[in-house]
Amino acid sequence: xxxxxxxxxxxxxxxxxxxxxxxxxxxxxxxxxxxxxxxxxxxxxxxxxxxxxxxxxxxxxxxxxxxxxxxxxxxxxxxxxxxxxxxxxxxxxxxxxxxxxxxxxxxxxxxxxxxxxxxxxxxxxxxxxxxxxxxxxxxxxxxxxxxxxxxxxxxxxxxxxxxxxxxxxxxxxxxxxxxxxxxxxxxxxxxxxxxxxxxxxxxxxxxxxxxxxxxxxxxxxxxxxxxxxxxxxxxxxxxxxxxxxxxxxxxxxxxxxxxxxxxxxxxxxxxxxxxxxxxxxxxxxxxxxxxxxxxxxxxxxxxxxxxxxxxxxxxxxxxxxxxxxxxxxxxxxxxxxxxxxxxxxxxxxxxxxxxxxxxxxxxxxxxxxxxxxxxxxxxxxxxxxxxxxxxxxxxxxxxxxxxxxxxxxxxxxxxxxxxxxxxxxxxxxxxxxxxxxxxxxxxxxxxxxxxxxxxxxxxxxxxxxxxxxxxxxxxxxxxxxxxxxxxxxxxxxxxxxxxxxxxxxxxxxxxxxxxxxxxxxxxxxxxxxxxxxxxxxxxxxxxxxxxxxxxxxxxxxxxxxxxxxxxxxxxxxxxxxxxxxxxxxxxxxxxxxxxxxxxxxxxxxxxxxxxxxxxxxxxxxxxxxxxxxxxxxxxxxxxxxxxxxxxxxxxxxxxxxxxxxxxxxxxxxxxxxxxxxxxxxxxxxxxxxxxxxxxxxxxxxxxxxxxxxxxxxxxxxxxxxxxxxxxxxxxxxxxxxxxxxxxxxxxxxxxxxxxxxxxxxxxxxxxxxxxxxxxxxxxxxxxxxxxx
Length: 788
Description:
Elements (H helix, E strand, L loop, with lengths): L1 H15 L2 E5 L6 E5 L5 H18 L5 E3 L7 E5 L3 H5 L12 E6 L2 E6 L4 H12 L3 E4 L2 E5 L3 E5 L3 E3 L5 E4 L15 E2 L3 E4 L10 H6 L16 H4 L2 H4 L7 E4 L2 E7 L4 H17 L5 E3 L12 H11 L6 H14 L4 E6 L16 E6 L9 H4 L1 H13 L2 E7 L13 H13 L4 E5 L10 H13 L5 H13 L3 H18 L19 H17 L4 H22 L10 E3 L5 E3 L1 H16 L12 H16 L10 E4 L33 E4 L3 E23 L11 E7 L9 E4 L16 E23 L16 E9 L1
C-alpha cells in the first residue's frame, strides 16, 4: 500500500504544481481560525480539517474564533476579516468555488456563498493525499507535516449542479470489520450507506443536494393533475387517443388544464417557498394528446405534428409566466427531445434534456449524432439546460457494462456545449450496479472537474480501493473495453449479457475475466476486506455466466444438458454458481437485479423452479412430442416446438425474454394440438404462464386455458377449463419491486386416454383500460406443456 500513498501524493502535486511544507509541531503553534460570526458551513469545514489532520498526525489542532486568535500560524477558514484584508474576491467564488491564499505562515481557505469553503477544505485534503473512495473507505496519509500549495489558487466549478443517483458502495451487515493500518495509510470501514445520500460522502465529492433546490423533480403532470381527482368529471383534461380520452398525459391545448395546474402548483409552492426549481413535465410514457388542437400546436411550433416539444413549451411557458421568481423545469425526453421551432422557452424555464436512446460503447457524439444535434439546437433556445444522463444497464443492473471510457468524453462534450447542470442516473437501489463504487467515484470527480483525465481517476481508484488486486481489476476493465470495441458490439442501457455472448462476453473472453479475478483474489487472499471488494466486483461476471448459460444446450457453459437417456438435466456447476451468486449478492447489499424488480431471493426462486421442473420430467409423456400449430407465436421468441423440448424458462428475465425459453403470443390467442404419438393414459396436463405486474410491459396471464382430448384427432372431448385466479382488469399499483406471477394452469383428468390434446389459452389480446399502453397488443408466455 506504500505505492498507493506515493501515487496519491504524485497526483496531488501534479494538480497544484507549486508547494510549501508546513510542520504541525504537535499542535503547539498552529490553530484553525474561523470568523467570529462563523456560519454552519464554516464551522463544519473547520471541524472536518481538524478531524482529518488529527487522523493523520494524532494532533488535535484547536479551533478558535478570529477575535480570540493571538498566534502567528493559522489555517483560516471562511469569510474572516483576515481574508478580507487580503482582498479576496468572495463574489468571484460564486456558490461553490473556493480560494487558497498562503500568506507567510498563514494559509487562507475562502469559499463561495454556499458550500465553497467546505469544498475547498476537501480539495486541500485531496491534495494532501487523503481519499474517500466510498463512504466506508477513506485513505489517510500518516505523518506530522503537510505540504500546502505555495501559490494563490482560485477554483470555480464549471458545472453548477452536480448530482447522481449512484450508491457508490454497499450497506454492510452488522458485523465488525477491522481496520487495516500501515505506516503510510489507514483504511477505515464503517457501517454506512455509500452514495450522494450519505452526507459526508456527497459533500466530500461536491454532489449537489436536490433537496435544497428542487421542490419537485420529474414526471409531474399526473401529480399536479391527478386522474383520480379529475378524470371522471373532466376527461377532456387528458390525452385524446384513438378517439378516447385516456389519463396518460395532459391535453396541453386546453386552457382549463393550464389554469387548474397553475392553481395546484401555487399551493405546493406556497408550502415550500424556499425551493427554486419546480417540475412541470410529462408522465413517463409516450401517450401524448392527439387532439386537433394539440397537433396544431406541434405543427405551429415544430413544423411537424409529431414534434411534441412545441406543445410542451407552449404550455410550460404559460406556467412559467405565472411564477416569474421560480424556475419551471420540463423534460426534453423521448417524443419531446427535439427542440421546437418558432418558440423559445421563457427565461425561467429549465430544459431537462435526456439521452435515453444513446448507446454507450463510444461517446454520445459518435453513437448518437441526432442527440448531439438536439443538444446544440436546445442550446440556441434555452438559458438553463440540465442533462439527464444514463450510466447503467437498467434491465440487468448487476451485469458487465463496459462504458467507463465514455463517461469522461461525454461530460466534456456536454460542458463544451455550455451545459452546466447534470443528473447522472444509475440505480437508486442498495448494492448499486456493476462497478458501482468506481462509477460513483469517477462520475463525482468528473462532475467537479470535467477536464480531469478519466484514466488517472480510474488508476487512482483501483489501486487505492483494491490494493494489490488493483492491477488485475484494471486489466479486467481494459480487456473488456478492448473486447467490446474490437467486436463491433453496441452497448445500450436496456441490453443484456445474452446479447454479448458472442462478443465481449464470449466463452473465450469469460475465461480471461475469470483468470484475472482469480489472480486478483490471490493478491489479497490474506486481507479479508480487500478480498470482499474483489468478490463484489466479480458479481457481474458470475451473473453473466448464469444468464448466458440459459441460452445454450449441451455446450461447456450451458445450464441445460442432455443425459444418456435423452432427458434434459441441469448442469451442477451452474446450479452451484446460482446459489453462490445469490448468497454473495445478499451479503453485499444487492436488493434488486433489475430496475424495478427481482430481489436476489426471487432470482434464486426463478432458477429453483427450473431445477425442480427438470427433476419432475421423468414421468412426462409430452417430452419431445410434436406440436401442431393452429395459431402461431411471435417470431421474437422461441418456436412452438419449444413447448415440448424439456427446457424451462427463467421468469426473472421478464423484461426481455428473447434469449429465454418462453413461447410468446402477441395480440393472439394460443391454439395448438399436442400429438402424443399414440393413445396413452393422461392424468394431468399443465402449462405455466407468467406475468410481471408492470404498467410499462404489455404482458398478462391468459384469462383461462382449456384442454380437450381426442383419440382420433377429429372427435374431441368437452374442454376442461382452468380459470386464471388473477383478474387482468384489476388496475396495477406502481410499486417496486414488481410482483412476478407464475401461474400453473393444471387440469386433473379422470379416466382419460388420448392421442391428441387440443389447447386454447385465452389472451386478453389488448392491454386493459388502466394500462398506460391501453389498446396495444398484449402478450402471453408459456415455456412448456407437461403431460403426465
